[in-house]
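Minutes, structural biology subgroup

Action item carried over from last meeting: produce the structure token record for histidine kinase (Mucilaginibacter oryzae). EB confirmed the sequence was re-checked against the source entry. Recorded below for completeness.
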Amino acid sequence: MHDRKYLIVTAGLLLILITPLCSVAQRSASVVDSLIKRANLLYPQNPAAGKAAAKEAASLAALNHLLPRQIKAIKLLAFFSYDSEQWGASESFAEQAVLLARGAGIDSLTGDALVTLGIIRAAQQKLDLAIESYKEAEGHYNRAHLVLRLALLYLDIGVAEKKAGRYGLANTFYFKAADIYLKNKDMGSLAEVYNDIGNCFTVAEDRKKGIQYFQQSLVLRERLGDSTGIAQSCNNIGYVLKLDSMADNALAYLQRAMRIRLKLKDSSSLALTLQNIGSALIIKNNPEKAQPFLNRSLKIAAVYQMPEYLARGNLDYADLYLHEHRTDSALARADVAERIALTLGLPDLSLGVFEIKQKALVEKGRFQEVYTYTQKINHIRDSLFTVAKNRITNELEVGFQTRERQRAIAALIRENQLKQRSIIILGMGGTLLLILLFVLAMSYRSKNKANKRINTLLQELHHRVKNNLQILSGLFSMQISNLDDETAKNALRENEARLTSMNLIHHKLYSGRESNDIEMSEYLETLLRHIQGSFGKGNAANIRVALDVEPISLAADKAVAIGLIVNELVTNSFKYAFNGTQGIISLSVKRDGEKKAVLYLTDSGPGWKDLGSKQQSLGLKIIRLMALQLDAQLESHHSGPTWYRLRFAI
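Output recorded by EB:
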């Protein structure tokens, strides 16, 4: 059975490898695709040339009725204009893409174009128009059953509603996104959404629920080992505890966040944590200890040009001066924070500024101005945190939790029904058992004969596959030796390596072993030796390969997929990671519980400079295809040392 499945997979993979070779000339001759790729490459260094290439691609696609490519080129023009803050042109291109997609009647294209339009409108603070575009996209994604795109769309709507100060409505869509991620068991994204929900509750002054969702986010991130996320959750929990004047508890969380961010060298996020530590120390009436934290946070905010953090740092200083009864200094700092808050349109920050000013003016006896700021405070609170909005959020939260309980109840009901059915089936099975035993005994002899014939045919098929693999490998070697173009040689070497990864599996199956499972430690060691040998000349000889694989055996079809993935990843590291320098490529395969394993590959190179073009390569397409075949979770990181993590079933 494994043999037949392996042969089917092998034949399919051979087709995948050979078909691109036959169609490379045709695909590379696609002028529109080349122009779009060229536009992406040119734009960072020469924006005008990048835009010109994108316009040429759009015109040529329109001339040849290549509608999806035309829409892609126009969306690219929209983002180029967005990047250069040419808002009118950006919005015009996005609207053109929407019209073309609507005319084509393709829901996925129309939804994507509308999301592009919404992003551009949101960047201009046209929040209601952006939300209108997003909600129209929702209908198209629903019709196309694009569930994960819907989740991202709900996050976009939530962000827009939050920017508009409509925190109840923001959580409406955050809960929808949370529902989707929970169904899909995407715990990383669910943790992010819980963090957003906690933010909305906190700003809406429902701190109890805010801290509840921050803590749920923290639990998920600790399970995932997400250091950056853990630091964010600890910072947020500490911030809420600080607001509730629980300074000691707040400092415990904030200091944990600070330690993690110092270890990660995350200076931009560290500024906010330092501000929170400073304000917590002010609450503890310890301004001397608070001042160094506030000073350091303001320096970081100035270096990284973070105006919101500058405003919050000045607001914390105003609070510190107020505790020291230096009201003039407090008002001066509050004025700086107020100007930035008004410029950035941050109502929650403005609220904090007005409250500080109100206290300072009371201390100075300027009661007419106190009255003015009291009215401003009430106006912000009335506009942002109405009872109706909080009620909507509460109802949605209850609805979300109710759905979880209903799912649990439904699961128990199904379990009981299955148990009852099992009892009935067992009773009937006892009656049928004697009949089945008789039938099996009668068919045993005929099946034995058929199995012998099948084994003979499989041996012959193995022999033919082996010969075909050797012929293809020989053809690749001959072509490599006859070519002068190094790019073409590398392409053929890559495909020869892919054949080798399958040939090793086939050799192990054909060697007469009783088991059809492949021992991964031995297989991957042989495969890496072959890849290192093929790149082992010149600078590549300075690259060391480290292998750490636990004893794990996989069925042949899974081993083929893992082999192809490892081949592509290691080949990419040899080709792109080191640029002639020394380095190390590390590959590990570890068990993750009884039924799962995690493959982790990393190199010590500086990362990929041209990420956009490499993500469209045949190698990465094969990686994604094999991950899909394995039903595996694939994660990657390309900024700094490159790493890939693949979690798959054993």
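Discussion: The longest helix spans residues 387-482.
Next step: EB to file the record with the rest of the batch.
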